[in-house]
Specification:
The complex is a heterodimer of chains A (261) and B (399). By secondary structure, chain A is α/β, with parallel strands linked by helices. Chain A has a single domain, classed as HUPs (Rossmann fold). Chain A has seven helices and 13 strands. In chain A, the strands form three sheets. Chain A has a nine-stranded mixed sheet with strand order 11-10-9-12-8-1-6-7-13. Chain A has a two-stranded antiparallel ribbon with strand order 2-5. Chain A is globular and about 75 Å long. By secondary structure, chain B is of the alpha+beta class. Chain B has three domains: 115 residues, Acyl-CoA dehydrogenase/oxidase, N-terminal domain (Butyryl-Coa Dehydrogenase, subunit A, domain 1); 117 residues, Butyryl-CoA Dehydrogenase, subunit A, domain 2; 150 residues, Butyryl-CoA Dehydrogenase, subunit A, domain 3. Chain B has twelve helices and eight strands. In chain B, helix 1 packs parallel to helix 4. The chains are: A alpha/beta (261), B alpha+beta (399). The complex binds flavin-adenine dinucleotide (2 copies). The site of one flavin-adenine dinucleotide has 22 residues of chain B, from strand 1, strand 3 and helix 12. Chain B: Keywords: FAD, Flavoprotein, Oxidoreductase. Chain B: InterPro entries: Acyl-CoA_Oxase/DH_mid-dom (IPR006091), Acyl-CoA_Oxase/DH_mid-dom_sf (IPR046373), AcylCo_DH-like_C (IPR036250), AcylCo_DH/oxidase_C (IPR009075), AcylCoA_DH/ox_N (IPR013786), AcylCoA_DH/ox_N_sf (IPR037069), AcylCoA_DH/oxidase_NM_dom_sf (IPR009100).
């Protein structure tokens, strides 16, 4: 089977987020960007399925040339090859523009399965997979905590607030995965070496047959109207130990009041 | 870790990032590993397997034999990173030195036989040169491999051999011509030495544990050879002239010893600085503000950077195939400096911790012995200074 897995190159989530007040967009420093940790679960899912059923894993990203890092990482984990959708004209793409670009790159691959994370770690609208499934005309199975394939049927356990639903679709399909699918593998030295030799195809909008007015700034129909800091809710309460032992009682009383003891 | 002055390639930076990522994932198990290593003196199998999955043991194995051929600098960077988390692996170092002997002096058949399993981390290999009466003066070894039909019979005794109980085979340095006969014939004492890969389960081979403090969870053993049969195809390198391969192995060993020492130094200095930033004894001033506390640590930081540059330089020279005598000089300097500062770093870290330096939970006191070891073994620092005096300064030999 052939699996296209979407991986996004995002600012390192361990570093503080910075927003440009003028453009109201995230400041993206390619040197401090990494593969979206959420997408590593997608790569892991794809690798496990291909290990079981045979086939090929193709990592796909849209981003600046530096997004190649995210693809190399996916290939170091084991993906066979990669596609980088990159073009100055894509700058300023909104969700639909991004989905159009990714769809144009994925469509000719005719994959059996497309895998995305449920939401990205930077913008986390969670809208992209739906748009992509729509454009590719694929059924979308979301919030998967487990994915299996039997013949031409994909089955997922769809996480809900109270448990999970079992959902099936006929391939080809698009699946979004959560962090419950299983710990992503880390690359080995062998993987690192192999990734250097694996091919990355770079596609611009002309090669993808996309028209400028549908993507990038001109194509963006979403507008970011305002950006504001999250109000810091003061959490927790500090109980000062004055040596009398009263603090213990105070903590116990609090714990009882919220019924944890 | 820094060493900015030494331009690491993109590849080496990725290697380091990958090791650090694994170490980060192993963090929840670290205390359990420490317990196994320090309290049970048993290096955890699971940790060995994780290192193997990472490809640590394949770094020295060429790609055609299932490794990555990334080289000794990669191995150096990786072992240093493990040691900086207190998870050094002496047997990875020893296995690596044996690997180098096979890579540089083995026949294609020997490479096919050993290297793929080494790369996969399935083999742990020991190294046996020291004898009760031949430590520093290794030319005086008396373990003898006598020709017997198609192969050899090995007789004699080795001591201090680390990790034999965990190893499937060991690289034994033996005489194929006794020392006295070599001298009588007017040949140099290095003549008549040969290397053999010996199965640790071979008939006639027995081991006896020594009562040592161990290193990183590996014990030391006496090994007795009583007419142990060794087939000809297990001799690594030419008969009587095993020295060239031996030097490659010993250079790798010294460089990787330096790597372990650098990592241990990092561990000690990091812990010391962390503690010194927090601990307040007089008023609100952290002890780290006192120059009597911070200067010794700062001085060690300088020496650590210097030792790292020496070590990386030696490893890079080794990888580039620089003649082993030149690599030997760099490796000697690297191992000398790195082992001196590793010990000092633990001494200072313990001093910085006051009484807590002796509390096991900080792991400083348990690492003091291994840190001290590397000034004595695998080669003592006096012998390295002898070598440096002779080869870098042209001074006469006294021994
Ligand atoms: C007006 C406007 C302008 C913007 N300009 C830019 C810009 O110049 N540069 C920029 O980087 N972002 C830009 N963005 C943000 C960008 O639109 C979103 O990051 C993108 O559409 C995906 O949205 P998301 O991250 O919320 O995806 P989600 O829906 O949260 O993502 C779910 C999953 O979809 C996949 N996915 C998402 N994006 C990609 C991708 N790019 N490549 C591969 N897989 C992906 C991943 O698997 C991801 O986990 C802009 C947004 C707006 C509204
Ligand atoms: C924990 C541990 C693990 C070991 N593991 C192994 C192993 O796996 N395989 C193996 O083969 N060996 C191993 N060894 C042995 C180690 O390599 C030797 O102990 C070391 O080389 C020193 O030899 P020796 O003990 O015989 O000391 P000696 O040769 O007796 O020397 C004693 C001291 O005399 C001084 N000295 C000797 N000669 C000179 C000189 N010419 N100039 C100046 N000073 C001199 C040095 O300070 C030296 O430390 C291990 C040792 C230890 C302690």
């Amino acid at each position: 089977m052939k699996i296209c897995v979407c991986v996004k190159h995002v600012p390192d989530p361990n570093l503080p987020v910075q927003v440009d007040p003028a453009t109201r967009r995230l400041i993206r420093d390619p040197k401090q960007s990494i593969i979206d940790p959420a997408d590593e679960y997608g790569v892991e899912t794809a690798l496990r399925l291909v290990e079981e059923h045979g086939g090929e894993v193709v990592a796909v990203t849209m981003g600046p040339p530096a997004a190649e890092d995210a693809l190399r990482r996916a290939m170091a984990m084991g993906a066979d090859r990669a596609i980088l959708v990159s073009d100055e004209a894509l700058a300023g793409s909104d969700v639909l523009g991004t989905a159009r670009a990714l769809a144009a790159a994925i469509r000719p691959e005719q994959p059996d399965l497309v895998i995305c994370a449920t939401e990205s770690t930077d913008a986390y609208t969670g809208l992209l997979p739906g748009a992509l499934a729509g454009l590719l005309d694929l059924p979308q199975l979301t919030f998967a905590r487990a994915v299996s394939v039997e013949g031409s049927t994909v089955t997922v356990q769809r996480a809900t607030e109270t448990g999970y639903q079992v959902i099936q679709a006929t391939l080809p399909a698009l699946v979004t995965v959560t962090a419950s699918v299983g710990e992503p593998r880390y690359p080995s030295f062998k993987g690192l070496m192999a990734a250097k030799r694996k091919p990355i195809e770079v596609r611009d909008i002309a090669e993808l047959g996309l028209e400028q007015h549908t993507v990038g700034e001109p194509g963006a129909r979403e507008r970011v109207l305002e950006i504001s800091a999250v109000r810091q809710v003061k959490q927790g309460r500090i109980v000062v130990d004055d040596g009398t032992g009263e603090s213990v009682e105070e903590i116990l009383a609090f714990l009882r009041s919220i019924q944890v003891v | 870790m820094t060493a900015q002055g030494f331009a690491l390639s993109e590849e080496h930076r990725m290697v380091r990032a990958t090791v650090e990522e694994l170490l980060h994932r192993l963090r929840p198990q670290r205390e359990a590993y420490f317990h196994a290593i320090f309290d049970e003196m048993y290096f955890p199998d699971e940790l060995w397997d994780r290192m193997a999955e990472l490809g640590l043991f394949g770094a020295l194995v060429p790609e055609e034999y299932g490794g990555t051929g990334l080289g000794l600098l990669t191995m150096t960077i990786a072992l240093e990173a493990f040691a900086s988390e207190g998870l050094g692996n002496t047997m990875a170092m020893v296995t690596a030195m044996d690997t180098m002997a096979i890579v540089r002096a083995g026949t294609p058949e020997q490479k096919r036989r050993w290297l793929p399993d080494i790369a996969a981390g399935k083999l742990c290999l020991a190294f046996a040169i020291t004898e009760p009466d031949a430590g520093t003066n290794s030319f005086r070894i008396s373990t003898l491999a006598r020709r017997d039909g198609d192969g050899y019979r090995l007789s004699g005794q080795k001591a201090w051999i680390t990790g034999v109980d965990r190893s499937q085979a060991m690289l034994v340095v033996a005489r194929t011509i006794p020392y006295e006969a070599v001298i009588a014939r007017g040949l140099p004492p290095r003549h008549g030495l040969s290397l053999f890969m010996v199965d640790t389960q071979a008939p006639g081979l027995t081991v006896q544990p020594m009562d040592t403090v161990g290193i990183e969870g590996f014990r030391q053993f006496f090994v007795f050879f009583d007419e142990v049969p060794v087939p000809e195809h297990d001799r690594i390198g030419p008969e009587h002239e095993g020295l060239a391969a031996l030097f490659d192995a010993l250079n790798a060993e010294r460089i990787l010893t330096a790597a372990l020492c650098l990592g241990m130094t990092e561990f000690a200095l990091r812990q010391a600085a962390e503690y010194a930033r927090e601990r307040r004894v007089f008023g609100d001033t952290p002890i780290g503000a006192y120059q009597a506390v911070q200067h010794p640590l700062a001085r060690l930081k300088v020496l650590q950077e210097a030792a790292r540059l020496l070590t990386y330089q030696a490893a890079a020279a080794f990888d580039q195939g620089v003649p082993s005598r030149q690599v030997g000089l760099q490796a000697a300097m690297a191992k000398y400096l790195a082992s001196e500062i590793a010990f000092e770093a633990f001494d200072r870290a313990i001093q910085t911790h006051g009484g807590n330096g002796f509390v096991k939970g900080y792991h400083l006191i348990q690492m003091l012995a291994p840190a001290r070891l590397f000034k004595t073994a695998p080669i003592n620092n006096e012998m390295l200074l002898n070598y440096i005096a002779e080869h870098a300064l042209g001074l006469p030999r006294s021994y």
